[in-house]
Amino acid sequence: MQPVINFFKGMVIGISNLVPGVSGGTMALVMGIYEKLVESIGKFITNRKRRKEYFFFLLPVLIGTVAAILLFARIFSFLLSSDFFAQPTYFFFIGLILGSLPFLMTVYADMKVKPLRVLFFLMGLGLVVLVVFIVGKDNTVDTFKVSYTLFNIIKITGISIKYAMWLFFCGLLTSSAMVIPGVSGSAILLGLGEYKNILNFLSEMMAVQLIIFGIGVVAGIIGCAKLIDYFLKRFPSNTYYFIIGLVIASIFQIVMQFLENINLSLLPVVLSLASLGAGFWLAYGISRLKRKTSN
Fold first, then answer.
1. CB under 8 Å, gap of 24 or more: what pairs does 235-241 form?
2. Residue 110 and residue 105: Cα distance in Å, rounded?
3. Within the chain, how many helices (H) and strands (E) appear?
4. At 1, is the pLDDT very low, low, confident or very high (cuts 50, 70, 90)?
5. What does the pLDDT read at residue 293?
6. The pLDDT value given to residue 286
7. Which tens digits make up the pLDDT trace of 130-148?
8. What is the tens place of the pLDDT at every residue in 15-24?
């Protein structure tokens, strides 16, 4: 039963990683598998005694994550490019983040406010805001010529060495979102100008581009997981304050996505507020369920 639950938790993480401003790491934290996740990834190679345990924990989470990304890429591409649905969708994501905050404030026993912890909070806040201000326009990528198609689904295309290296680098940077709560991989991709391109590669099942990007993601996750696991074990309170700063600042990331095109007509406003409330209660309900499970 637990592998099935972990599969659906992986799907939530996968969906979160598709959305600018929403962190898969945040959702992992809310669902209560964050520390286990970073430990399993960070120590999978070095801890031989627990490698089997880590494998059977990671496998359903990974399958769920990949399945959700492949299934929902086209849906989110449609929602976020729609003049009507984009704003309510972004408000739903804001609600998710706000609803997760009560859980984050009590995730560790000693969360008392102290000057050093406030400093870590501000560092997390500032890091995400910095990412927002370096966001640029999407890069223009020439149409890739399809050499052949596998099973009438997977498209094989050519790719330049320069662009392949760039995709690998983008994968390295965006992988932090799968490990660090509050850091949105999609928002980082927006800053790198590759968000729409990656959605397109997923929607069109362009294998070469996705494999290169995926290798960068895997390499980044392994390195970043070890770092986060180290800080959580030795400086838990300061690390969680830093994470909370990241989470709160991610709301700013989302607002910046639709601020210029905000629609204040009655129906979009009503739908946006309803979506905000739905997102809040969904995340808050998940966090309350986690507390009951822990008790």
1. 236/108, 236/110, 237/108, 237/110, 237/111, 237/114, 237/117, 238/116, 238/117, 238/120, 239/120, 240/104, 240/107, 240/108, 240/111, 241/111, 241/117, 241/118, 241/120, 241/121, 241/124
2. 10
3. 12, 2
4. confident
5. 47
6. 63
7. 766 654 444 444 456 777 7
8. 877 876 566 7
Spacing of C-alpha 248 from chain mean position:
14
Dihedrals phi, psi of 149, to nearest 5 degrees: -125, 135
Cβ atoms of 18 and 203 within 8 Å: the answer is: no
- Cα gap 258→267, rounded to integer Å: 16
Q: Which two tokens stand for residue 61?
A: 């989470």
Q: How many CB atoms lie within 10 A of CB 292?
A: 7
How many Å from the N-terminal Cα to the C-terminal Cα in the chain? 20
Pull the structure tokens for residue 265. 């007509």
Helices (H), 19-158: 24-30, 34-43, 51-81, 86-104, 115-133
pLDDT for 211 equals: 93
In single-letter form, the type of residue at position 171 comes to G
- Residue 233's contacts (CB-CB under 8 Å, 6 or more residues apart) are none
Euclidean distance between CA atoms 105 and 20, whole angstroms: 23
Choice among 5-9, 169-173, 193-197, 209-213 with the minimum mean pLDDT: 193-197
Whole-prediction pTM: 0.65
| DSSP label of 19 | S
Q: Count how many Cα atoms sit within 13 Å of the Cα of residue 281 in the half-sphere of its side chain.
A: 6
Segments of 93-228 assigned E as strands: 146-150, 154-157
| Statement: residue 280 has pLDDT above 60 | yes
Question: What is the pLDDT averaged over residues 243-258?
Answer: 76
Integer Cα distance of 39 and 222 in angstroms: 10
Q: Provide the token pair at 258.
A: 């639709």
